[in-house]
Backbone:
């Protein structure tokens, strides 16, 4: 760790976000070991993905955004979170309408694009957060590394929750993996940029976090929940609860 601490902040951020991306890819790679599921397995998987994304939108995005704006007062925090959240939701709804016109009946392709877009938007501010942590760490590199470790562990089920529902819809394992891992790669350039532009990124981060949360909730409501609950309310509900609980546990445990 001593040698790592002597590296430039952007190199530290590059290594850290490379790890977080690898964890996303590892989660997405689990799709190669999955077999075609029938019965309640698909709504359970989609519910699990919905629960993971809902928990991540609050614990990993909205809560940190609120903490970063508390110093500016409750009024500013309320405006930033509300405006950013609604903007993110509106972005996904607009993208949904545009993709529906372009792709027509190819719903699997549309869902893949929306899931990848939502997770990418989620991972960009996380990458920024890691980069900002290393850029402003000074001698506290260990705390920044722990942040990257926590995000990386959380990214594993996130990669899985994108690729697995796509595979269940008939998409090839290779394509489902590519979509699942692609969302995590956004953290790498975002982390480097965050380390190089600490002041600017720190000011923008609450807006980006809230925007990403709105996008994720919109995708859950538009795609995952209707599909999961349409096939089996019981399996879908169990998936949502387990997915939410898993992400909540990881976030609280890892701080």
Residues:
């Amino acid at each position: 760790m001593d040698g790592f601490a002597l590296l430039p902040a952007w190199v530290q951020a590059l290594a850290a976000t490379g790890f977080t991306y690898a964890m996303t890819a590892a989660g997405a790679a689990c799709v190669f070991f999955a077999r075609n599921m029938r019965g309640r397995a698909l709504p359970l998987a989609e519910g699990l993905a919905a629960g993971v994304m809902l928990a991540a939108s609050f614990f990993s995005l909205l809560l940190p955004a609120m903490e970063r704006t508390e110093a500016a007062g409750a009024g500013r925090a309320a405006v930033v979170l509300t405006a950013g959240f609604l903007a993110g939701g509106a972005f996904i709804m607009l993208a949904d309408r545009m993709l529906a016109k372009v792709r027509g009946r190819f719903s699997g392709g549309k869902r893949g694009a929306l899931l990848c877009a939502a997770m990418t938007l989620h991972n960009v501010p996380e990458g920024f957060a890691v980069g900002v942590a290393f850029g402003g760490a000074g001698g506290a590199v260990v705390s920044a590394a722990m942040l990257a470790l926590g995000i990386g562990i959380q990214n594993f089920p996130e990669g899985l929750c994108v690729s697995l529902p796509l595979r269940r819809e008939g998409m090839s394992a290779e394509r489902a993996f590519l979509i699942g891992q692609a969302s995590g790669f956004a953290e790498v350039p975002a982390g480097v940029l965050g380390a190089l532009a600490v002041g600017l990124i720190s000011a923008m981060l609450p807006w980006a976090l809230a925007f990403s949360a709105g996008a994720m909730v919109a995708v859950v409501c538009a795609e995952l929940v209707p599909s999961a609950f349409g096939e089996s309310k019981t399996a879908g509900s169990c998936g949502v609860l387990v997915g939410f609980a898993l992400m909540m546990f990881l976030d609280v445990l890892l701080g």
